[in-house]
Design a protein that fits this description.
The chain has 2 domains: about 55 residues, no CATH class; about 230 residues, Alpha-Beta Complex (2-enoyl-CoA Hydratase, Chain A, domain 1), CATH 3.90.226. It is of the alpha/beta class and about 280 residues long. The strands form 2 sheets. A 7-stranded mixed beta sheet has the order 3-4-5-6-7-8-9, sandwiched between helices. A two-stranded antiparallel sheet has the order 1-2. About 35% of the residues lie in helices and about 15% in strands. Helix 4 runs parallel beside helix 5. Helix 5 links the parallel strand 6 and strand 7. It comes from Candidatus Nitronereus thalassa. One of its GO terms (molecular function) is acetyl-CoA carboxylase activity. Its EC number is 2.1.3.15. Component of the acetyl coenzyme A carboxylase (ACC) complex. Biotin carboxylase (BC) catalyzes the carboxylation of biotin on its carrier protein (BCCP) and then the CO(2) group is transferred by the transcarboxylase to acetyl-CoA to form malonyl-CoA.
């Protein structure tokens, strides 16, 4: 994986890393200042606490799939602005900014590939595009990926990292929760495996819908997963939350996810899970 040998040429996609002259990064979990090249050569794990730094979509594909097997679908599907939404700037201008920044039309990438030689359909949220927020195009692309999985009878893997629903699309965004949940129901009816992989962070309407509907739900260590943020919850209930609340480890302890998997073991783990699910189905 050649990308592990190269340091990033830009700041972290999620804005969590403080890069000092391109040589050092600050871990957002343990606050240690670590040598960037050491992080890069170790699957982007913090050498002190093993916090999993963010991966780009392309890095994630390289990590999970067999080399040169990924084929992207529906790359030109782009959002409209039926509400004429304006906050600090018009939605159309915001979209253009993120499209130029990421080189993508929206925050979801779908396609097909192989994992240990076995075909699967995969969908990946791109957090760089408006925080991986789920609007009409994200929901539509997930549904089209599911349709492809149904047609080919291949399993579906969704890699989630999102701030939740995209407020600039109003109810059109919120309806994607029901739309994607209905698509997953079709997978269940066809007895096709659906694995959900939760990465840091996965929040809001994405957590409240498709991300938590997997036959098997995996998460990366220390990933923040929830609906509302911890500060919002504390202000609402007027109580201090338990230590580690909304971290993957807390969710595993309380039965909300099935397993926490270190990044170096992800490809093998997904392959084993798919093999067992395919046999059971």
């Amino acid at each position: 994986m050649a990308w592990f040998k190269k340091g990033p040429k830009h700041k972290s996609e999620k804005g969590k890393l403080n890069i000092v002259e391109g040589m050092w990064v600050k871990c957002p979990f343990c606050r240690a200042i670590v040598y960037q090249k050491e992080v890069e050569k170790n699957f982007k794990l913090c050498p002190k606490c093993e916090y999993h730094f963010p991966l780009s979509v392309n890095e994630r594909i390289d990590l999970l799939l067999d080399p040169d097997t990924f084929q992207e679908w529906e790359a030109d599907l782009a959002p409209a602005d039926p509400l004429g939404f304006v906050d600090t700037q018009p939605y159309v201008d915001r979209l253009k900014t993120y499209q130029e920044k990421t080189g993508r039309k929206d925050g979801m990438v779908i396609g097909g590939g192989l994992i240990q030689g076995k075909p699967l359909v995969i969908g990946l949220f791109d957090f760089r595009f408006m925080g991986g927020s789920m609007g009409s195009v994200v929901g539509e692309k997930i549904c089209r990926a599911v349709d492809r999985a149904l047609k080919s009878k291949h399993p579906f893997l969704l890699v989630a990292t999102s701030g939740g629903a995209r407020m600039q699309e109003g109810a059109l965004s919120l309806m994607q929760m029901a739309k994607t949940a209905a698509a997953v129901a079709r997978l269940h009816e066809a007895r096709l495996p659906f694995i959900s992989l939760l990465t840091d962070p996965t929040f809001g309407g994405v957590t409240a819908s498709i991300a938590m509907l997997g036959d098997i739900i995996l998460a990366e260590p220390k990933a923040l997963i929830g609906f509302a943020g911890p500060r919002v919850i504390e202000q609402t209930i007027k109580q201090r939350l338990p230590d580690g609340f909304q971290r993957a480890e807390f969710l595993l302890e309380h039965g909300m996810i099935d397993s926490i998997v270190n990044r170096p073991n992800l490809r093998d783990t997904v392959h084993v899970v798919l093999r067992h699910l395919s046999h059971s189905h």
